[in-house]
Structure formats: structure tokens, C-alpha cells
Amino acid sequence: MFVEVLREPDGSYRVTSIVAGGWGEKYLEVGNRIIAVNGQDPAKDYIVGRYGELERVKSLDIVNAQGESRHYELEPPPLSETLQFIGVPLAASFLFLIFVAVLWRSGRSDPSSFVLALFFLFTGAAYIGGYTTHKLEPVGTLLFRFLFLMVPVVFIHFMNMYLKRFNEFLLSSKWMIFFYACLSFELALLCIRSFVKLEFLDWATPLFTLFFAIPNVIAVIQLIRKYRKHRKGDLNSLFKLTLITHILAFSPFIVLYSLPLLIGSPIISVGTATAFLLVLPLAYMYMLMTRRIFDVNFVLNRFFYHASVAVLPSAIMALLGMWIVRSEGPSGIGITRMFLIFYLVLVILLFVKEALDRKLRQGKGGTSLDGNFERFSHNVARVMKRADLERALEQEIKESIRIPALQFFDWDTSVNEVPVEKMAAAERREMAEALRRKNEQLVPGSLTMLSRGACLVIGRRGDQAYLLWLDDKADHTRYNPDERNRLVTLANYSAIVFENLYLVEGLIDSLEAEMEKHGETPGWVLRLIFNLSENERRRLASDLHDSALQDQIIWLRRLETAIVDYEMSGLLKAELDRIKEGLLDVIHQIRETCNELRPPLLMEMGLEQSLEQLFTEAQMRADYIVDFQANNIGGVLDDEQTLAIYRITQELLRNADKHADASNVEISMFADEEAFYYRYRDDGVGMNEADAADSFSHMGLAGMKERVRSFEGTFEWHSRPGAGMETEIIIPLKPSTDFSYKEAVQ
User: How far apart are CA 292 and CA 234, in angstroms?
Assistant: First the structure.
């Protein structure tokens, strides 16, 4: 009804306020005298006596300003009108129940997920309970205030449990005791006020708002302190994300509703403001489910870019809208509201535009031509020979550009005919002559256009070059700038790998020749080979970071400067923006490859925590779920064994994704005084063990066996079609005395 009444000195009641949108707006006027409520004296009505309001009324008798008596029989409101009040709370509560179900299914083993589920339940129940406050129902109001005050407290409990895995906490137990004391005090006041009418308890309502604000404000202050403490550490992104989440959740309510409400003109409705609170559960559920913080800096950079671009168009559209509609005159609130609507729409549209741009820049095979190197990065990470590099490069090019033929070959200036099988003899001689003329331009990582196709320079030693010939495209069109940029990047990438492989292959060939003289390869030699391989991986990662990556960043900065400093047409600026986005993607993929080649902080973080991070990243790229259990493994393995287990796990995960098509992967490891035990199981397609020869497709299996054998361990695996694969590895912690590869090198 939304009608407030006041008791007069003579004992009667008079209408003092009527809120728009309620029943009273249509039938009552300020100043009407209330004669009877539900057929009895208004003073005997509980709600009128306790709260000074009309609510839950079935019949009403009044006397209007003209002295006329009126009698009203109030029917329950229609369902459509009721849904206006309870529809949004019901929808929000249903959404929170879905969150709880997802948490229960996927995160029941994590204690913090239980507390987060409680947070969702309290918040959803508070949404529903808010409806009872309009009805002035005492028990419902008491329950609502309890739930509402518990929301920030339960949230702090969740943050403390979540941060425990990082050896941090948000607030101490003393603060929690203080919050519970405030909550109990407020509820006690509410109970007293519900049964005893005391004027001095009228300040309980603002106190309720204060008790809700205190834990939220303190939590934000503490988050700011934590962010400042860890702004240069590993937890920088975690606390930055939590701060941004709180700002997005509470700022609209405070800045766009509460503060403007003080002057009587809120910019957005309370329903819209509270809808932003959904940012909290969504963000923290993501953090809990994935056990990972996404790159918030990457998103922020794009948001600030799009937000800055949208300011001027939003202001222009708001002014034009006011000029066209003229519905609110020169009202500042109206202009502000229209500006915010257009501004948010434009920011969203710019994000959509970015996604559409990437779709439009995709080739026939669905691979972005601007730099989606994820597949190539994974293939290069396990390259051990030049043939492997050729296969990975060929696969990447064929799946991104429609090329009917390509061929790798060695060439020097002394030959008169290139060994390209797809060409006729005359064409081979013509190509040899063209390469001879352009000999000075054949530097590693370059692209040379020819009368038929093009040549990528993968490596060079003196007068001899290692080239990749690419035929003309299948649609007979020229290579466009996007395709050329991609090919040059691949060539630079491959050139670095080739130079390192040249040294590694020579060393491996010498070692293999020595092994043939002695039969089975001793463990210390295997360890030497794998350590050399890891050293080359680290060196390759460093080269990629210091050369290719830095060059890409330099060109990106020059491109950004050109876009800002020079005037250009809209089409040219849009094309340069697309090229800029492509360079950003290339930079991101090179960084991912460096991390793949050189696992970051493996020795500092330890095996268990590094594997958890690996599983989180793998599950974001693949469709399987990893169930990981580790017990009593801290410090039992040395650095070489730790790296070996990490590489073996990488290979098993690749097999589960690329070949096994698994949906569930189980990995467990534990140790006793004698040995370290590692068990792997997936539910993939499986294979016949008899068919698993050491071909290229099973090079990973052979490599895992050799890694384990280098530590005098045992490697057993079992698989059959349709039954997945199981692997068991046992590495003795006290191997028999055998002179080590370090002694051999010395």
C-alpha cells in the first residue's frame, strides 16, 4: 500500500505520506483521516501501532478532506502486480541455486566451496526476504535482516578460506567476533522493537545500514592493503581482480543510486543497481572452479581502450537524444542517464566488434591468420629433430593457408636447379636463378616472393640455406599482408628452433654412435641427453623471449605511435588496428611457448603446486577434467627427477587431448622411504599395445620410458581399445651406485 500515517493528539490517525506505485496512490490523499482498519480502531492494528504504516489491510474506512466517508474493500493484488515486486528476487534466487548446484557437483572437496555456497544461499534468501519488508511482516523482516547482515560476513569467511591456499587471510578472527557482535546487537534491537513501541529505538534502522556497510568497507580497505603489499608479487592479479570485482559490484549502487537518491533523482533504479551485485558470485565462482586468476591486465587494457573510444560518441548521442526527444528538457539527470546508456552500449559493441574482427580474419580452417600459434607452440615444445620441426611447420601452414604443395630443401649458389618435385625442369632452373640473384636477401626468417610461390628461409650456414618452398595458393590469389606477416613470424620462430636443433642433433648423433658400441644406453647417458635437451629448451625460450618477442614488441610500439601521431582515413586506421591486434596475439603466443619450453618457477613452487597450475591451464584448453591427488611427495625428488615427472605429465596430458579424446584423467603420486610412485589413468579411446611401435605418433611414449629408465625406474602401461590407458611409474629414491653423467662430463 505504501501509506504512512501519524497519530494525532486526539488519538485519531491521519495520512502523512503516500509513495508512488502503491495502492494508496489511487485512492487516498495526504490528510485523510483513518476511521477503521479491518473493521476496528486503527490503534488496535499491529502494523499501524508499531510502524505507523498501512499494510496487509483487507478493509479501510476513511474521511476525506471534504468530510465524506469512504469504505474500501481491498482484494489481493493480481499475480502480474505481485510479480513486479517478487519476480526479480525469485529469478536472482533461482540463479544463486544454480551456482550452489554447480559448486556442489564440481567443488565439494574444497572447504571454501562450501562457504561460497552458503554465501550464495544467504544472498538468494536475502533477495526473497526483501519482499517481506514491504509487507512489514515481523518474522520475515527479522529473517531478512539476519540474512542481509550475514552476507558480507560469510563472504569474508570465504575469502579467508580461499586465501589460505596462498598463505594469506583477509581479516583476523577478532574482526569476525566484532562483526557477529554487531549482528547480534542489531537483531536484539529489532526483536525488542517488534514487540515494544519505544521511540528511542527508531535509530535501529540506520544502525542496520551501518552494520552492513562496516564489514564491506573494512574488507575493501584490507583488499587495497593486500594489493599494495603484493603489487609486485605473484598475488598481484588475485587482489587486483578482487578489488575490481568489488568496485563493479558496489559502485553502481553507491554512485548511481544511493548518492543521487539524497537529492531525489537516482540515475538508475534500485533493481538495476542490485543486479550488479551478481558480479561477486560470478567472479568468485570462476576463481574457485578454475583455481586460477585470469589475466585481468589483458582485459583492463582493452577495456580502457574501448572505454576511452566510446566517451565522445556517447556524449554526442546523449546530446542529440535530448535534442530529438526533448522529453526531459535540459535536466542534468536526463542527460547523464542517456549518456550512461549509450556509453555502456558502445563499450559492449566495441568488444563485440573485436570478437567479430577475429572471426572475419579467420581462414577456411577456422584458424586466425593474425597469430593463433597455440597448436604450433605445443608441437614445437616437443621437437627434438629437424624432421619434427618440418612436420610441425608444415601442419601449421597447411591448416591456416590453403596451399596445394610445399617442400623443404637445402640450396646453395653452386646448383643450377632446385630439387622441387612439383616443378617442371624449366621452372626449377628459373627458380634457382632467381634465388641466386636474391642470395643476399636470404637471411633466416625472411620471405622471398618468386614467380611461382614463395620461399621461407628457415636457416643458413655460409653459402648453404635451408628453405621452405610454398606453392601458389589454391585460389590463385596473391599472399595478402596478413598471410605474409604470419609466414614471416613462423619463419623467425622456426629459424631460432633450427639453429638450436643443429647443435643438439649433432651432439645426439655422436652420442648414439657411441651407444651402438656398448649396447643398451646407460642411465647416466640418458640423463645427460635429457639434461642437454632441457638446457637447449631453456636456451630456446631465452632466445625467443630476447629476440623474436622483443622485436614484436618494438614493432607493436612503432605501430601504436604511427596510429596516434599520423592522420589517416578510417579504413586505413581500422586495418592498422587489426594488424595491431594480430601482433598482440603473436606476442601472447610467444610468451606461452616460452613458458612451455621453460616451466616457470618449477623448482621454486615445487612439483605439486606446479602440476596444479599445469592442470588448470590444460583444462582451459582441452575438454577433460583432471583429478589430481598427491601425498607425501614434498622434497623427495631431486631437481632432475622433478623435471622428468613434470615433462612426463605434460606428454600424458597431450596424449589425452590429441589422441585419447579423454574426458576424465586421474593422476596420483605418493612416496615412501624406498621409492616414488606415479599413477595415471584416463577414459580415452585406448589402443592395442601390440600396435604401439616406436613410430612418430608414439615418440612421446618412448621418451617417457627412457626418462624413467634414466633414473633406474620402471615404466609400465596398459591399454586396450575403448578402455583408456593406465600408466604406473616407480622411481627408486636410493638408486644403486653408478657413476653419474656429471662425473662423465668432468
Answer: 12
Per DSSP, the residues of 24-47 read: HHHH--TTPEEEEETTB-GGG-HH
Sign of the C-alpha dihedral, residues 268, 271, 272, 273?
A: positive
Q: Distance between CA atoms of 670 and 656, rounded to whole angstroms?
A: 22
Q: Which three cell numbers stand for residue 210?
A: 551501518
Residue 303 pLDDT grade (very low, low, confident, very high; cuts 50, 70, 90): low
How many Å apart are CA 599 and CA 614, to the nearest integer?
Answer: 9
One-letter amino acid at 655 equals N
Classify strands 664-671 and 625-631 as parallel, antiparallel or unpaired.
parallel
Per-residue pLDDT reduced to its tens digit, 503-550: 766 666 766 776 676 666 666 667 666 666 776 766 776 767 667 777
> What are the tens digits of pLDDT across the range 376-414?
766 766 676 778 888 888 888 887 777 888 989 888 888
Three-class SS state of 172: coil
The identity of residue 50, as a single letter, is: R
Give the per-residue pLDDT at 728.
93
Give the position of cell 526527444. 325
Cα separation, 517 vs 675, whole angstroms: 32
Instruction: Quick: pLDDT tens for 75-121.
Output: 777 776 666 667 667 777 777 787 778 777 766 667 777 887 888 88
pLDDT in tens, 172-208: 888 888 888 888 887 887 777 666 655 544 544 567 7
Identify which has the larger pLDDT, 678 or 351.
678
User: CA-to-CA distance for 454 and 401, rounded, in angstroms?
Assistant: 13
DSSP state of 362: B
The three-state secondary structure class of 7 is strand
Residues 6+ apart with CB under 8 A from 44: none
The terminus-to-terminus CA distance of the chain in angstroms comes to: 92
**What is the identity of the amino acid at 10?**
D
Neighbours of 280 (CB within 10 A): 20
Distance (Å, rounded) from C-alpha 452 to C-alpha 435? 12
CA 310, 315, 320, 325 dihedral sign is positive
Please state, in angstroms and rounded to a whole number, the distance separating the CA atoms of residues 88 and 95.
Answer: 11
Beta strands in 74-170 (DSSP E): none
Main-chain dihedrals φ then ψ at residue 732, nearest 5 degrees: -65, 140
Residue range 34-53, pLDDT digits in tens:
888 888 888 888 777 777 78
Q: Which grid cell sits at 141? A: 523482516
Side-chain half-sphere CA neighbours of 77 within 13 A: 17
Residue 299 to residues 279, 303, 305, 326, 378, Cα–Cα distance (Å): 16, 6, 10, 38, 24
- 21 φψ region: left (φ > 0), alpha (ψ -120 to 50), beta (else): left
Phi, psi torsion values for 678, nearest 5 degrees: -130, 125
Q: By the 8 A CB rule, do 421 and 407 touch?
A: yes
CA angle 44, 48, 50 (to 5 degrees): 95
Per-residue model confidence (pLDDT) at position 691: 66
Burial call 436-446: b when 16+ CB within 10 Å, e when fewer = eeeeeebebbb
CA dist 278 and 249 (Å) reads 7
What are residue 265's DSSP bridge partners?
none
Handedness of CA 615, 619, 624, 626 (dihedral sign): positive
Angle at 124 between CA 105 and CA 80, to 5 degrees: 120
What's the helix, strand, coil split of the chain in %, to 5?
Answer: 60, 10, 25
Dihedral class, residue 559 (left if φ above 0, else alpha if ψ from -120 to 50, else beta): alpha
Distance CA 602, CA 609 (A): 8
- Alpha helices, H only, 164-269: 173-195, 204-230, 236-251, 259-261
